[in-house]
Amino acid sequence: MELISSAERNQLFESFSQDAFHLELRDDYCVPDEDSPFTSWLRGESVDYSYMEPWTQLIRRVTRQGKTVRRVRVVTEPHTPYLQWEHATTGLNEEAGEEIRWLPRHRLPEGVTFPVGGNDWWLYDNRLLAVGHFDSDGRVLGSEIVVDPDAVAECVRLRDLLWAAAIPHPEYCGTPSPLPPSTEMPSRASAGVRAVAP
What we know:
Oligomer: single chain
């Protein structure tokens, strides 16, 4: 199985024409760029969000072209510390132009099964999948490109089902969580906010 890097996967954002959708199924991720900020957040220390700029610059650019970037996060409740942090910072993703919804596992539609080995995936324009692969610690190994029509169609159906069932971020857990302390909180006019997603 051939895997591409996160940087190579992000090049797909240069060529999709309408919609990019990410399904996230893990309760914990180990993203190297996030390790230090996450640790600082756990300690209640100030967090520098400048590491997020490459991702949000990309998202701002593609959404200003009229394209959509969406996510559904299927999560266990109560949240792991990582999910608590992710929820607290999701408003920054949305400010950049993403649309994010949350779906607690206990509210999954009955009979749902997850294709492509139960891995996370990006779906581009209903035609191409970038399936994420992780090690046992949740660290990204790379993405597998899948263009098989049956696999793509199965993911399209699941995306539509879960998107309809999931809860928009501002409505999830009552109100959006306050952001953790930050020494450099990007303004709406600045270019930056969340790191490259797994």
